[in-house]
Amino acid sequence: MGWRYLLDAVFPPHCVACGVGGEWCCSTCVEGIETVRQDRKIEGLDGFIAVGYYHDPRLRAVIRGLKYRNATCLDGACREVLRRYAETRIHPWPWAGESTLVVQPVVGAPNRIRTRGFDPAAFVAAALKKGPIPWAAMGSLLERKTSVSTQADLPPDALRQANVKGVFSVRENADIPEAVLLTDDVFTTGATMREAARILREAGVKRVYGFVLALGA
Ligand SMILES: [Zn+2]
Fold this sequence. Notes:
single chain; 217 residues; alpha/beta; Rossmann fold; five-stranded parallel sheet; two-stranded antiparallel ribbon; 8 helices; 17% strand; globular; binds zinc ion
């Protein structure tokens, strides 16, 4: 019993993707999520993984659910998505040769975190640590300097890259690791993640990888 029981009684769980009762994301929908078969090469990153596609209504519903509903409701579904992806992945992880790896969320703008109550990038980092890469260390290397508008408000393409330039800094006195894995929920233009990678390299990080739940928006 307790809070969760009470919450479930007042707001009975139903699948965020198909609406069926019982769970916040039913196993049929989790199993139906289309995964990315071929790793993308992303300029500025030493390796990059996207689990699925934002145009997939099931994965999109999970990600939106994380943002706008309640992360704790979809924690299990998210971990199951990652577990299935890791299990069916054919190629080694891009960071397979690393003996240590620091997982670093691409820090969201403060206003974005506040309104949603949590940071999706940090959620993905924690899910990786709890799932496929338990041996990794969690990092807090990056700081967001200013509260710029979120990507949705920005003009496309080159301007986005210009707009994120200088938005991150590396924490003072941070121990600089050899290899960092940047995490986020959705990868659109990649401008923010590339800028985070650039600033980490500038601080002395040798290799920077990326991991997101979904490609494109
Ligand atoms: Zn469903």
